[in-house]
C-alpha cells in the first residue's frame, strides 16, 4: 500500500541579512491533535536583530497549557519541538468520541522585554487518542453447534498495542438479543482470546460481537451450509459495446488444491434489475448457454451481442456461471459484471498538477484506453489554449497506452491555461462519430510576487521501507530578493504524515553572486517502517522581504510495519496426515495470533485480515479539506491581503477582504497538508477587496493508484512417508488458531500434523509487541496426494431412507491404474445389493470415476461411513496402456460422519428402583416387555446402577427428555436442570471441571435458544413470533429460570424484567393471573390447567425471583391464594401453595396444606407404582411436596416423610434420568437436588449381580479416579474392574423378546471415594 510523502520546507535563509529588514516569524503546527499523544510544531524565526522570547500556549476550556517557552538568540532559528497534548478531563472520559472533541486555540506570543513583536492565535481540533479495536474471528461462517473463536486487539494510530481492560464484550444474536457477556476482560500481551459455543439450534443469521458498546464490532453468520471444493473462474472482456457483433467468455473450474474439474457449465445473463432482485429464473432462453469442460476444466462460450437484447438503459450485464461436477452432481456458482459502454475510447490526464509555475516545465501524462484497457500505438493530440490561442501537439501512445509530455511555460503570462486531450483534430467527422471521450484540464498560475518557484520532481516508483531515497528539487529564483553578499541558500524541509510532523531537515546550496538563480539540487529522505497513509513534501523559500515560495509533491510508499512478521511452512506441499513445521519470525517478545483456514471456507466468505483492510480501518477519517479549506468549525476566517487601491478610492477595503481564496498560493498548500501557520510572512495572494463577484473554479484531482503484488511459488511435495496410510478422518474448517510467543530471539516454530482434507490452507499471522503491530504475508500449504478417494454426503438422512452414497476416485498419477473401491460394512448401514454394479475401473492420468451405492441408514445419530480405494495389481490394458501399481500411496481410505435422523416416534419404557444397601443385601426384580408395535431391530434393553439419586441426570444432561427440542417450552428442559445440579454439586463440594463445563454449556446454549421464542412485548410462547401472543405460564417459567441461572452465566436482566412487566399486565384485580396464549401440548405445563393453579405457579416464580418485599404484584398474588378454600382445590394446587408459603415463611398455611397433602397422597405413594405410569402432574405434585419439606433451612425436615417422597419420585424416571415432561423434570430435579444436599450419604463400593434368565451372570465392581467427596480428602485410586461372565453372549435381547425377567442384587463392600455419578455397570461389556 503506498502513500504520498510530504516534504515541507525549503527556506531561503541568507547569511548576511540587512539590518534594515524586519524579522520574520513562522510557527507551523497540525490542525488536528490528539489527547495524551506527542505532537510536533516547528518554529522558524529569521532576521532577528535582538534576542526574543517565544511562548506557545494551548488555550483549553478548563485551563491553559504551555507547550513551548524559550529564548531565541539572533539571527534566528529553525527547529521542530515535541510537545505532549493534555489528557482528557475526567468528565470527558466516558463521553462519546464526538462529544469529547474540542476546538481550542493555539496562541503564539513573541516579545522582547516589554515589547510585543508578534502575537496570533488559531483554532486547533483536539480529538481523543485515535485507536482501532480489531475483532477477528477464526472464520466468517459457522454452523449451529460449532464454537465461535475470536480475538480482540487494540491499536493506537501508530499501530502500538494498547494493553487495556475491556469493560464489556457482548455477543448479540440476529434479533439483537444479548446472549453472552464478558466483563472486565484483561488481555494477554494486548490480545484477548475468547470463544463461545453455539447452540445446535442457534438462530440462523448475522451475529455481532460488540466491544465497549459498539466502540468496535465484527459480525459473523450462522447458517446451514456445505462447503464447496470447486472454484469457478470467469474470464470476460472488461466491457462490451452494442456495436460488438460477439464476444467470448471463458469459464474454468478447479478444485481448491488446484486441479481442473470435469463437469457441465451453464451461463445465464441477467440485467441489473434481475440481479438486484435476485431473479435468476426469468432470463430468456436466448440469454442461456451450456457446455462441457475440456481436460483443463475450461470451456469457452461465443456470445452474440444481439441475443442479450441490450437497451440504452443497460450499463451493466451480469453473467452467472454454474458448474456441476461430473459423477457427484456437486454444484458451485460465480457471478461477474461486464460493463456496457457507449463511448468505447477515452483520454484522461493522470499525475497532473492543478497549477503551473511560469518558467518551470509543466509535466504530465495522458492515458488513452477503452474502459481501462490501454490502446497502444495510437496517435493522440494535446491542445494548449492560452488566451484563446491554441497550440496542437501530437503523440504516439506506448505499450501502456500512455503519453508523457513536458510543456514550456515561459510564455504563459500568468493566465488561465486549458489542456485538452483528444483523438482527433478539427473537422475529422469520421473519428468524431467513433464516440471518443475527450479530457479537459484547467491550469491556474501559482502565485509568486517575484515569479520565484520551486518544484519537487515526482517519482513513479513505490518507495521501499527502510531505505534512503533521493529527491530532486528544481528552482527558479529572483536574485533581487537575496542579499548582495549571499553565497549560499539554506533550504529547510519537514516530513509530514497523517496530518502530523514527523521530522525536519535542511539543505545548503551554494550560489555564485552573478549566477542566474535557476537550477536544481537533491537530498536524501529515509523512508521508515511506519504504517503510513500519506506522506507529502512541501518546499517553501523565505526571502529577506518575507515572501515565501513553495511546492508540494506526493510519493507512494510501500506498506511497512515496525514489527516485521514473516511466516513460512517447511514445505509448500504435503500429503494428508504428515508432519509439517510452520516457522514464525517477529520482533523479540512478540505474541503472535496464527490462523489457518481451508480455502473452501474462504471461497464462500473471505474475512481475512490484510494490510489493505487494516489500512482502511486505521485511516478511515471524515476530516476532509474542502475547496474553501478547513471544516467550518475549524476555519479561522483569516482575511486575505488586499491589492493596492486605485487613486480616488477612500473606502477601507481591508474590512471587506474575503477569508477564502481558491487561487494557488502557499497558504493553501499548508491547508492541504492539514497544517496551520501563524506568520508575518507573505504566503497569500493579494485579492481585490472591492470586487464581490468572485468566481469559484473547481480543481480536479486523481486518486493515487495502488498496485497489488501477488507472488506465486512453485509447490514441490516433500513427504516421503512410506508407512501404511491411515484412514483420513480429520476434516476441520479451521486448522490452526493458536497464540504463539516468539521469545527473546524473535523466532518460533510450530510442529503440526496436516489435516486429512485435500485442499489448500491459507495461513495468516499477526503479532503484537512493544515495537508495535505486525502482519505477515499470506502463507499457503497445499495438501495433496496423486491418488485419493472423496466422499459426497448429504447433510443428513432419515433412518430407513434409501439414498445414493457417492465416492469419487481421483488419479493424478502419470500412469494408468486399476482401482477397486469398497464401502466398509457397518451395522448402521444397509447396502442394497447391485449384481450389475462395477466397483473396479481403469483410471488413466487426470481421470476420475464416481462409484455409487444405494444405502439405507438403520441407526440414529452420527454414523461413520468408510470408503477405501486400492490401486490393484493388474496385467490388463487401460486405454491401450498397461496398468501399473504405485510403489507407495496405492490405498486411500476416508471416514466421514453422516447425521441420521429418526423416521418415526421413539418410545422408551423405564423401570427404576431406589435401593439402599447398608449392611444387608437387597435385590429387585423387573419385568421387561416390549410393545407389540415395536419396529424390527429397534428393541433394546439397558441396565445400570448409579450410586446417587442425582446420578442419572448428571450422566444425561443433554437428553433428560425424549425430545428436548422443538418448541420454546421443551428447550427449557436442557436449561433449567443444570441450575439445580450446579448448586447441588457446589453445596456438596463435588463439582469437578468436566461436569461444570457440561452444565454451563447447556445453560449458555439453552439461553440462546430460548430467546428465539421471545415476543417484542417480553412474553414467550411455544413457537415465538409465529404465535399471535405470548403464553402466561411459559413466560413465568422462563423468567423464573433466567433469574435462577443468572448466578451461573450471563443473563440480560432486561429479559427477566420484560417478562415480569408483561405478567403484571395480566394480573386481575383479585390478584390472580389471567391465562393468556396457548400451548401446543398442554401436558407440557404439568398441573397448571386453571386460573388458580396458574396463579400459584406464577407466585412461586415471583418468590424465587426475590422481588422486593413490598412489591404489590407479589402481595396481590399471595392475597389471591390466601382467599382460596383449600378443600376445594386439587392436589397440584395444594402442593404448589405449600411450596409458596414455605418460601414466604407462612408456617400456618404451610402446615395446614402439608397435613392435607399427607392424607390425600398416602394411598398413591404406598401403592405399587411400578406397574403403571404416573401422570406428569402427579410427579410434579409430589416434587412440590418434597420442595415444601426441604426448602426452608430454618425448619427441621422429617427425613422419613421426605425419604418416601424420594423413593416414589425415583421410580418415575425415564431412561435418561428425567421424567415424563418438562415441568415435572425440572421441579423433580430441583427437589431431589435439595434433598440430596440436605442428606449426604456415605459412599461405598458395590458389588452387583445381574441375571437375565439363564443367559448370563455378571459380577462387577467399577472404580474411577476419585474427586473430593463430602467425607474424604482428595486422593487417587487406579481404575480397576472385575467381571466374570458365565456365557459368551451377555445380555443379548433379540426381536423375539416379549416378556422376560431381570434380577438385580446389590451388596456393599466398604467406603469409596470415586464420583458416584460414574459408578455404573451396564449391559454386556462394561462401559
Keywords:
Immunoglobulin-like; 68 strands; 1327 residues; five-stranded antiparallel β-sheet; 8 domains; disordered C terminus; 15% helix
Secondary-structure blueprint:
Elements: E1 6-8, E2 24-30, E3 32-34, E4 38-46, E5 52-59, E6 64-72, E7 77-84, H1 90-93, E8 102-112, E9 115-127, E10 131-137, E11 141-142, E12 147-156, E13 166-172, E14 178-185, E15 191-197, E16 205-211, E17 216-222, E18 230-235, E19 239-241, E20 246-255, E21 263-270, H2 272-276, E22 288-292, E23 298-304, E24 316-325, E25 331-341, E26 345-350, E27 355-356, E28 362-370, E29 373-374, E30 379-386, E31 389-396, E32 402-407, E33 417-422, H3 429-432, E34 436-437, E35 439-445, E36 453-456, E37 467-476, E38 488-497, E39 500-510, E40 518-527, E41 535-542, E42 548-554, E43 566-569, E44 573-574, E45 579-585, E46 591-598, H4 599-604, H5 611-618, H6 666-672, E47 675-679, E48 734-741, E49 747-753, E50 759-769, E51 772-775, E52 779-783, E53 787-792, E54 796-798, E55 802-811, E56 817-823, E57 829-831, E58 840-843, E59 847-857, E60 861-872, E61 877-878, E62 881-882, E63 891-901, E64 922-928, H7 951-955, H8 976-987, H9 993-1010, H10 1032-1045, H11 1053-1065, H12 1091-1104, H13 1112-1122, H14 1131-1143, H15 1147-1166, H16 1176-1190, ...
Parallel strand pairs: 3-9, 11-17, 19-25, 26-34, 27-35, 44-52, 54-63
Antiparallel strand pairs: 1-38, 2-4, 2-47, 4-7, 5-6, 5-8, 8-9, 10-12, 12-15, 13-14, 13-16, 16-17, 18-20, 20-23, 21-22, 21-24, 24-25, 26-28, 28-29, 28-32, 30-31, 30-33, 33-35, 36-37, 37-40, 38-39, 38-41, 41-42, 43-45, 45-49, 46-48, 46-50, 50-51, 50-52, 53-55, 55-59, 56-58, 56-60, 57-59, 60-63, ...
Keywords: Disulfide bond, Glycoprotein, Protease inhibitor, Secreted, Serine protease inhibitor, Signal
Protein name: Alpha-2-macroglobulin-like protein 1
Signal peptide: 1-19
Amino acid at each position: 500500500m503506498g502513500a504520498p510523502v510530504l516534504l515541507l520546507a525549503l527556506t531561503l535563509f541568507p547569511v548576511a541579512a540587512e539590518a534594515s529588514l524586519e524579522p520574520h516569524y513562522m510557527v507551523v503546527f497540525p490542525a488536528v491533535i490528539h489527547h495524551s499523544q506527542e505532537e510536533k510544531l516547528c518554529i522558524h524565526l529569521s532576521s532577528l536583530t535582538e534576542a526574543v522570547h517565544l511562548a506557545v500556549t494551548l488555550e483549553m476550556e478548563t485551563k491553559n497549557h504551555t507547550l513551548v517557552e524559550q529564548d531565541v538568540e539572533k539571527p534566528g532559528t529553525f527547529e521542530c519541538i515535541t510537545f505532549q497534548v493534555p489528557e482528557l478531563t475526567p468528565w470527558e472520559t466516558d463521553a462519546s468520541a464526538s462529544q469529547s472533541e474540542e476546538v481550542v486555540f493555539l496562541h503564539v506570543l513573541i516579545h522582547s522585554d516589554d515589547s510585543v513583536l508578534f502575537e496570533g492565535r488559531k483554532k486547533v481540533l483536539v480529538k481523543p487518542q485515535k485507536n482501532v479495536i480489531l475483532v477477528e474471528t477464526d472464520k466468517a461462517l459457522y454452523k449451529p453447534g460449532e464454537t465461535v473463536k475470536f480475538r480482540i486487539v487494540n491499536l493506537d494510530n501508530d499501530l502500538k498495542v494498547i494493553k487495556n481492560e475491556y469493560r464489556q464484550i457482548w455477543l448479540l444474536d440476529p434479533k439483537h438479543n444479548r446472549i453472552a457477556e464478558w466483563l472486565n476482560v484483561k488481555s494477554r500481551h494486548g490480545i484477548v482470546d475468547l470463544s463461545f459455543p453455539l447452540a445446535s439450534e442457534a438462530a440462523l443469521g448475522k451475529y455481532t460481537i460488540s466491544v465497549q458498546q459498539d466502540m468496535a464490532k465484527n459480525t459473523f453468520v450462522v447458517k446451514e451450509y456445505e462447503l464447496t471444493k470447486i472454484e469457478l473462474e470467469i474470464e470476460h472482456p472488461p466491457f462490451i459495446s452494442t456495436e460488438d457483433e460477439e464476444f467470448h467468455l471463458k469459464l474454468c473450474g478447479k478444485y481448491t488444491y488446484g486441479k481442473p474439474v470435469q463437469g457441465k457449465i451453464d451461463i445465464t445473463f441477467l440485467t441489473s434489475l434481475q440481479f438486484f432482485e435476485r431473479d435468476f429464473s426469468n432470463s430468456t432462453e436466448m440469454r442461456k448457454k451450456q457446455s462441457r469442460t475440456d481436460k483443463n476444466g475450461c470451456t469457452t462460450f461465443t456470445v452474440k451481442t444481439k441475443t442479450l437484447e441490450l437497451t440504452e438503459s443497460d450499463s451493466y450485464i451480469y453473467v452467472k456461471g454454474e458448474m456441476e461436477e461430473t459423477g457427484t452432481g456437486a454444484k458451485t456458482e460465480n457471478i461477474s459484471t461486464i460493463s456496457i459502454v457507449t463511448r468505447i475510447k477515452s483520454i484522461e490526464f493522470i499525475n497532473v498538477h492543478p497549477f503551473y509555475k511560469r518558467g518551470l516545465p509543466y509535466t504530465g501524462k495522458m492515458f488513452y484506453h477503452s474502459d481501462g484497457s490501454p490502446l497502444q500505438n495510437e496517435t493522440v493530440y494535446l491542445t494548449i489554449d492560452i488566451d484563446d490561442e491554441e497550440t496542437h501537439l501530437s503523440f504516439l501512445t506506448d505499450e501502456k497506452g500512455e503519453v508523457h509530455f513536458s510543456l514550456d511555460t515561459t510564455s504563459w503570462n500568468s493566465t488561465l491555461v486549458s489542456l485538452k486531450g483528444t483523438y482527433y483534430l478539427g473537422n475529422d467527422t469520421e473519428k468524431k462519430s467513433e464516440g471518443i471521450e475527450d479530457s479537459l484540464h484547467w491550469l491556474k498560475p501559482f502565485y509568486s510576487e517575484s515569479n520565484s518557484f520551486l518544484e519537487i520532481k515526482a517519482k513513479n516508483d513505490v518507495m521501499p521501507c527502510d531505505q534512503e531515497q533521493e529527491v530532486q528539487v528544481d528552482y527558479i529564483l529572483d536574485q533581487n530578493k537575496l542579499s548582495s553578499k549571499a553565497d549560499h541558500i539554506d533550504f529547510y524541509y519537514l516530513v509530514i504524515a497523517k496530518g502530523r510532523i514527523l521530522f525536519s531537515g535542511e539543505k545548503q546550496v551554494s550560489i555564485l553572486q552573478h549566477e542566474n538563480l535557476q537550477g536544481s539540487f537533491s537530498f536524501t529522505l529515509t523512508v521508515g517502517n511506519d504504517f503510513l497513509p500519506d506522506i507529502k513534501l512541501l518546499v517553501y523559500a523565505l526571502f529577506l522581504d518575507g515572501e515565501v515560495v513553495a511546492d508540494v509533491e506526493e510519493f507512494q510508499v510501500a506498506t511497512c510495519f515496525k514489527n516485521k512478521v514473516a511466516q513460512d511452512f517447511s514445505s509448500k506441499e504435503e500429503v494428508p496426515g504428515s508432519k509439517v513445521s510452520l516457522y514464525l519470525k517477529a520482533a523479540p517478545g512478540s505474541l503472535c495470533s496464527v490462523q489457518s483456514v481451508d480455502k473452501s471456507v474462504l471461497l464462500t466468505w473471505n474475512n481475512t485480515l490484510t494490510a489493505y483492510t487494516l489500512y482502511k480501518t486505521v485511516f478511515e477519517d471524515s476530516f476532509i479539506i474542502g475547496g474553501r479549506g478547513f471544516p467550518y468549525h475549524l476555519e479561522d476566517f483569516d482575511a486575505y491581503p488586499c491589492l493596492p487601491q486605485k487613486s480616488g478610492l477612500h473606502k477601507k477595503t481591508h474590512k471587506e477582504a474575503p477569508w477564502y481564496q481558491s487561487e494557488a498560493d502557499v497558504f493553501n498548500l499548508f491547508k492541504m497538508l492539514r497544517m496551520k501557520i501563524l506568520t508575518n510572512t507573505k504566503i497569500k495572494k493579494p485579492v481585490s477587496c472591492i470586487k464581490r463577484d468572485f468566481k469559484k473554479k473547481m480543481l480536479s484531482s486523481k486518486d493515487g493508484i495502488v498496485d497489488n503484488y501477488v507472488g506465486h511459488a512453485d509447490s514441490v511435495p516433500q513427504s516421503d512417508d512410506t508407512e501404511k496410510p491411515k484412514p483420513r478422518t480429520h476434516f476441520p474448517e479451521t486448522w490452526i488458531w493458536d497464540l504463539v510467543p516468539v521469545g527473546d530471539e524473535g523466532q518460533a516454530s510450530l510442529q503440526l500434523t496436516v489435516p486429512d482434507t485435500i485442499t489448500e490452507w491459507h495461513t495468516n499471522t499477526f503479532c503484537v509487541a512493544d515495537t508495535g503491530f505486525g502482519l505477515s504475508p499470506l502463507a499457503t500449504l497445499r495438501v495433496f496426494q496423486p491418488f485419493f478417494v472423496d466422499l459426497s454426503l448429504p447433510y443428513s438422512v432419515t433412518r430407513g431412507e434409501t439414498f445414493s452414497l457417492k465416492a469419487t476416485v481421483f488419479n493424478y498419477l502419470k500412469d494408468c491404474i486399476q482401482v477397486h473401491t469398497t464401502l466398509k460394512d457397518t451395522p448402521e448401514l444397509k447396502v442394497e445389493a447391485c449384481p450389475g454394479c462395477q466397483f473396479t475401473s481403469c483410471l488413466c492420468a487426470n481421470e476420475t470415476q464416481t462409484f455409487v451405492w444405494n444405502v439405507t441408514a438403520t441407526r440414529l445419530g452420527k454414523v461413520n461411513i468408510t470408503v477405501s480405494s486400492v490401486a490393484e495389481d493388474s496385467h490388463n490394458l487401460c486405454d491401450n496402456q498397461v496398468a501399473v501399481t504405485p510403489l507407495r500411496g496405492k490405498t486411500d481410505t476416508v471416514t466421514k460422519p453422516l447425521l441420521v435422523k429418526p423416521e418415526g416416534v421413539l418410545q422408551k419404557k423405564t423401570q427404576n428402583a431406589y435401593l439402599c444397601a447398608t449392611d444387608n443385601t437387597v435385590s429387585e426384580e423387573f419385568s421387561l416387555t416390549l410393545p407389540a408395535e415395536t419396529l424390527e431391530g429397534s428393541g433394546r434393553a439397558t441396565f445400570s446402577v448409579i450410586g446417587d439419586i442425582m446420578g442419572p441426570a448428571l450422566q444425561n444432561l443433554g437428553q433428560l427428555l425424549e425430545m428436548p427440542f422443538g418448541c420454546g417450552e421443551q428447550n427449557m428442559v436442557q436449561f433449567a436442570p443444570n441450575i439445580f445440579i450446579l448448586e447441588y454439586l457446589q453445596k456438596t463440594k463435588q463439582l469437578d471441571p468436566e461436569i461444570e463445563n457440561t452444565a454451563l454449556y447447556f445453560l449458555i446454549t439453552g439461553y440462546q435458544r430460548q430467546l428465539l421464542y421471545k415476543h417484542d412485548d417480553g412474553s414467550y410462547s411455544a413457537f415465538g413470533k409465529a404465535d399471535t401472543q405470548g403464553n402466561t405460564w411459559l413466560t413465568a417459567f422462563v423468567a423464573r429460570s433466567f433469574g435462577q441461572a443468572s448466578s451461573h452465566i450471563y443473563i440480560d436482566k432486561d429479559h427477566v424484567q420484560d417478562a415480569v412487566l408483561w405478567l403484571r399486565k395480566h394480573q386481575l384485580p383479585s390478584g390472580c393471573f389471567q391465562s393468556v396464549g396457548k400451548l401446543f401440548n398442554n401436558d407440557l405445563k404439568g398441573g397448571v390447567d386453571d386460573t388458580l393453579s396458574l396463579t400459584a405457579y406464577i407466585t412461586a416464580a415471583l418468590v424465587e425471583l426475590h422481588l422486593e418485599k413490598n412489591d404489590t404484584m407479589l402481595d396481590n398474588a399471595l392475597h389471591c391464594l390466601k382467599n382460596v378454600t383449600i378443600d376445594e382445590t386439587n392436589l397440584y394446587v395444594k402442593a404448589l401453595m405449600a411450596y409458596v408459603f414455605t418460601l414466604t415463611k407462612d408456617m400456618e398455611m404451610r402446615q395446614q396444606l402439608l397435613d392435607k397433602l399427607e392424607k390425600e397422597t398416602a394411598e398413591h405413594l404406598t401403592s405399587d407404582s411400578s406397574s403403571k405410569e404416573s401422570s406428569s402432574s402427579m410427579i410434579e405434585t409430589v416434587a412440590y411436596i418434597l420442595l415444601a419439606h426441604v426448602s426452608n433451612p430454618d425448619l427441621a425436615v422429617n427425613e422419613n416423610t421426605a425419604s418416601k417422597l424420594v423413593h416414589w419420585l425415583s421410580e418415575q424416571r425415564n431412561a435418561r434420568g428425567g421424567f415424563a415432561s418438562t415441568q415435572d423434570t425440572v421441579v423433580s430435579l430441583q427437589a431431589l437436588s435439595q434433598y440430596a444436599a440436605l442428606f449426604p450419604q456415605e459412599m461405598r463400593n458395590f458389588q452387583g449381580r445381574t441375571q437375565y434368565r439363564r443367559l448370563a451372570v455378571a459380577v462387577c465392581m467399577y472404580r474411577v479416579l476419585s474427586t473430593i467427596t463430602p467425607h474424604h480428602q482428595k486422593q487417587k485410586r487406579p481404575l480397576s474392574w472385575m467381571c466374570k461372565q458365565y456365557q459368551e453372549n451377555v445380555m443379548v435381547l433379540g426381536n423375539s423378546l416379549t416378556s422376560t425377567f431381570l434380577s438385580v442384587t446389590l451388596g456393599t463392600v466398604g467406603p469409596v471415594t470415586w464420583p458416584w455419578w460414574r459408578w455404573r455397570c451396564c449391559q454386556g461389556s462394561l462401559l
